Amino acid sequence: MNNRKFRIWNIARLKRKVMEGLSMGRTLVILMLGSLIFFILLGLGGMAEQRMNSSPVSSMKGLAASLSSHFFIDMIGMEMPHMTASKETSSFSGEKMSTFVFELLTSVNPRDPKSLLAGELPGMKANQPVQLSHGSGNEDGEAPADYRPDPAEGQAEGDPADAGEEPPQGGRGDIGNEGNGEDAPDQGTENEPGSKNEPGNTSKDGKSTNGKKAVLIYHSHPQEAYNPLLSHPSDNPGAVSPSKNVMLVGSFLSKRLEANGIGTLHDKSDYQSTIEGYNYNFSYKYSRQMVMEAMSQNDGIHYLIDIHRDSQRYNKTTATVNGVNYAKVYFIIGHANENWRQNEAFASKINAKLEQSYPGVSRGVWGKSADQGNGEYNQSLSPNSILIEIGGIDNTKEELQRTAEALADIIADVYWQEQEAEKASVKKDNDQTKKQSASTATKGGSKKGTEDQAAKAG
User: What does the alpha-carbon distance between residue 285 and residue 377 come to, in Å, rounded to a whole number?
Assistant: First the structure.
């Protein structure tokens, strides 16, 4: 009897164990299926978002790019004390941390009221530019502000200061004609550093493109002007005169590049003054045709720089470096171009060097889709194409010149480094080709010798 009870008790216990196992297995299977369905839905949601979102860059990358590298060093330093830069101020302040956490949780930048409005208006939030690389001159993470300039001074309003001054000619078919789209030597910038725009200029270290044009500087919005250069300031100034609008900045940049030994073509086409039936919305179509003509007439041009200015006020567009004021800059990349990452890499090289030499001048590299305007900015024409906004409506001629010349020196550094890298790559390829040819010749000679020996033996 006891043995029977013992056997029955063991069977019941075994049955209970089996049932528990089956129950746990069923729960495990349910959890696995639930997880699988969750990740499938998550993936489908991501694919849907990618199709609906015209910008190929996620907002999370923009949030990460808004943080300086010092921020991440301080984070690591919390666990690894020797990583902390003791002489520098910590990035962890109450204001910075609260702003970062608030934006991370709500996608609203408390320093930018427009981001709150964007969250309430359907479709507006998706149209926000994305910050691709941090700029220390833009701690608030504020995006560029671009508005159509007011009627040009000296054109619609008949300003006396511009009376008798002809608008710059150009437009279509005038590329490379002196006075019709290209800088004349020392035009409007007498006695300024690097102002000789003569072909074949050589840099201080002897580098030169030997008169061959390698860089094209142009202006899709040529009448964007600066208040300190005008007699009638406005909230969004425009001007016809090339000595009062962004063409002046292009001249500073062009002449400094020439002084660095880089042949540069500066186009001064003013589409608004020269094209019949001009439409501001087609600005990049006009400039695109000009760029293509310039590249067809100068096969060495592979670097395209479109110069604009920002529409924000002085306190946001000016930086002080070593007691000297500079106009801040934005770098703009168009995401409508499928190969935009190549343009971003080019902009990031310039941005990194600018951050190192002139901290506070860069406002970062920003990406824009077609929702924010053109979205392509002619950047599909070259992997070394970039749009740069230099200064704002209130920056002075001196501030603009300092920034333009600093940028030119940095662009020249990037250009010559890339040329050296290209030469080294070509040399390596040539060496490999020679080795392969020599190896093939050796094998051929060895084979022929073997055949001769076999023939003699026969």
Answer: 9
Residue 201's nearest CA partner among 247, 255, 267 is 255
Considering the domain architecture, whether residues 117 and 181 belong to the same structural domain is answered as: no
Closest CA to 326 of 209, 405, 418: 405
Report yes or no: 343 and 332 within 8 Å, Cβ to Cβ.
no
Q: Which of 374, 288, 278 is nearest to 332 (CA)?
A: 374
DSSP classification of residue 67? S
- For residues 205 and 306, membership in a common domain is answered with yes
Overall number of domains in the chain: 3
Last residue of a domain, one of 81, 116, 133: 133
Tell me the two tokens of residue 450.
Answer: 């073997």
Q: Which residues, 6+ apart, have CB-to-CB distance to 165 below 8 Å? A: 154, 240, 241
Quick check: is 32 in a domain?
yes
Kindly give the confidence (pLDDT) of every residue in the chain, 458 residues in length, as a single tens digit, with 9 standing for 90 and above: 555 555 555 667 777 777 777 677 777 778 888 888 888 887 777 666 555 544 445 544 554 555 555 555 666 665 565 655 545 555 555 555 566 566 555 555 565 555 555 554 444 444 467 778 788 887 777 888 877 887 765 554 334 334 334 445 444 434 443 334 444 433 434 333 333 445 557 666 778 888 889 999 999 999 999 999 998 888 888 888 898 999 999 999 999 999 999 999 999 999 988 888 888 888 999 999 999 999 999 988 999 999 999 999 998 899 999 999 999 999 999 888 888 889 999 999 999 999 999 999 999 888 887 665 667 899 999 999 999 999 999 999 999 999 999 999 999 999 998 888 888 877 776 767 767 776 666 666 665 666 666 666 65
Host domain of residue 114? 59-133
Is the pTM here over 0.70, yes or no?
no
Residues 114 and 30 grouped into a single domain: no
**SS3 of residue 332 by DSSP:** strand
Handedness of CA 176, 180, 185, 190 (dihedral sign): negative
> Domain check: are 35 and 81 in the same one?
no
